[in-house]
Amino acid sequence: MKEKIKEYCLIIVGVFLVALSLEYFFIPNNIAAGGLTGLAIVINHYIPSISTGPLVFIMDLVLFIVGFIFLGKSFGVKTIVSSFSLAGMMTIIEKFFNPQALTEDLMLASIFGTFITAIGMAIVFNANASTGGTDTIAKILNKFFHIDIGKSLLAVDFIITLLGAITFGINIGLYGLISVIINGIAIDKVIEGFHVCKEVTIISSKNDEIGKFIMNDLERGCTYLKGVGGFTGKDTYVLYAVLGRSEFIKLKQHISKIDPRAFITVGEVHEVMGEGFRNIQ
């Protein structure tokens, strides 16, 4: 139950960041940086009586069925929450806060708007949801074709960016394209950052004690690998484990107390699946 509440709280935070970037960077500057929001900006230009918030909500309904069919009930419910939240937040901001562009410099608007959007969308994706629309299509491509979400989003949003260029001119269209490209790359990098773990190999005379600390205190698994010392020619064991950042700090402190002469190598892994980590599915 706590995990579900945490996921929905993260979704709301991520959606809020996306709404802020849209209302204060993209929409006032007519930058159609892909997605249904980009398409809504284009439609709003031709039909100004319909604001972007309700437009996003209407178009999202069309893709909800696709999300339910291909991504399962859990994803569909979360996506409904995030999509309703995004449309609702955008509508509230438009009605009550009269949003204005924080900067009219198109380059600054593209860069800052894109990075805020990327962080927000990465938080939402990491909670196994999307902000709806083209995000759902990107998630489907990721699931069935194993294409990175950022790259999937880039491919899907390219057409909408072209529509923006036709509507608002090639200059603004190119800024929209920059935003789409940066957004695709940034989302993957932010998501990778959420899952970075430490891959640790240890050679120590106290391997048994270190192994017990990893399993009992850190509640992580570890593996003993047989080896032969190149200098001594003696049999030895190499301890291998994958830990979270905070867990590695605790392990390092423990090893420094019991065997300061231990040999340790540490690397970063960007995704770990299996028992104790993310489900392989």
Walk me through what this model shows.
The chain is α+β, with helices and mostly antiparallel strands. It has 2 domains: 2-194, no CATH class; 196-269, Alpha-Beta Plaits. The chain is built from 9 helices and 4 strands, in the order H-H-H-H-H-H-H-E-H-E-E-H-E. The chain has helices at 2-26, 35-46, 52-96, 106-126, 134-145, 149-168, 170-195, 207-217, 245-258; strands at 197-203, 223-228, 235-243, 263-269. A 4-stranded antiparallel β-sheet has the order 2-3-1-4. A hairpin with a 6-residue loop joins strand 2 and strand 3. The radius of gyration is 24 Å and the shape is elongated. The model has no long low-confidence stretch (mean pLDDT 83). This is DUF2179 domain-containing protein. Keywords: Cell membrane, Membrane, Transmembrane, Transmembrane helix. Pfam families: DUF2179 (PF10035), YitT_membrane (PF02588). It is a multi-pass membrane protein. Its main location: membrane.
Instruction: Provide a count of the helices.
Output: 9
* H/E series: HHHHHHHEHEEHE
DSSP strand (E) fraction? Answer: 5-15%
How many domain modules? Answer: 2
What is the strand tally? 4
Protein structure class: alpha+beta
The major pleated sheet works out as: 4 strands, antiparallel
Distance between the termini: 21 Å
Query: How big is the Rg?
Result: 24 Å
- The main sheet orders its strands as 2-3-1-4
Secondary structure blueprint with pairings:
Elements: H1 2-26, H2 35-46, H3 52-96, H4 106-126, H5 134-145, H6 149-168, H7 170-195, E1 197-203, H8 207-217, E2 223-228, E3 235-243, H9 245-258, E4 263-269
Antiparallel strand pairs: 1-3, 1-4, 2-3
Helix pairs in contact: 1-3, 1-4, 2-3, 2-6, 3-5, 4-7, 5-6, 6-7
Keywords: Cell membrane, Membrane, Transmembrane, Transmembrane helix
Main location: membrane
InterPro entries: DUF2179, N-reg_PII/ATP_PRibTrfase_C, UPF0750_membrane, YitT
